[in-house]
Fold:
Amino acid sequence: MTKQAHPQPRSSHGAQPDAVRAPAGGVLAPADWRDFFALTKPRVMSLVIFTGLCGLLAAPERIHPILAFTAILCIAVGAGGAAALNQWWEADIDAGMKRTAARPLPQGRVTRSDARDFGVLISGGSVVLMGLAVGWLAAAILFVSIIYYAVVYTIWLKPRTPQNIVIGGGAGAFPPLIGWVAATGEITLMPVLLFLIIFFWTPPHFWALALFVQADYAKVGIPMMPVVAGEKSTRRQILAYAVLLLPLSVLPWWIGGAGVIYGASAMVLSLAFLALSVRVGLRERSGPEDSMRPEKQLFGYSVIYLFALFAALVADRFLPL
Amino acid sequence: MTRDSDPKRTRRSRNNVLGLLLAAFVILVFAISIVKMN
Structure:
């Protein structure tokens, strides 16, 4: 990676007073419950719940449905708490980006301190409940994942390095590992492979997005790969990660941890992922009016890819073949 | 998503949601306790 100077992000955390909602009458309006719900990034949470559930269901051992529900609830709430802490820290950055400007903090619908307290409360609660109800190993990994996202990624890496997504991708890779450990109580090779699949999936997923919203990232000084290393380098790296993802996604079948349904699905899905990445990796933007269709298609497909891959893993466990 | 402009209604709806969540949490803790005892 070439290290280049980049502008400092506009995260003037703590430098501004809490945003307040002061309507025409001058009375502070209370935050709506939907604003707090929005702080948890529900759309991201759906992927977290799904991959966590798949990790739990694909594990070779079963736990009581109430405990399984609690484990998934804790994973979801922990992720929501980390998302709230992320938005607390990045309120200024979010305000400067079209994609995030409508979030509760930039809009002043929730105060910064409320967002921070909400994030700490539900994150901490989810770890304690996971430990007491399910197991302390799963709780410890959940705790690490929250710290990884809220501190290592949000506060430390994201504003400093264009490799933020690569290392920070680990935060989103934890849910299937936690789900698996919640069911079995131990860490084995299979859940580590599931972790690695999401870890290697994250850079092409986010960089495809970054390619068509890079002006936003440049505006707020976040050193995303296209902004710092340029489009050409980003496209090559998307391709490199897609090439690595192909054998990695098939590995659970190859080591005998998953059956033929998963193996065949992983091969087909990853080949399609690679084909779309080749289109993105080998092209150049035709000009400022370029619709960036291949990049948008890769981004959209990458979400479907992860859902389908993990669904295949669970189908493989439950369907006799 | 529509939002109430009346602060009283907003606060009431927020309290209702919080109450429901707390009730659900208590039921969940009871259920976990029963599972753990068996």
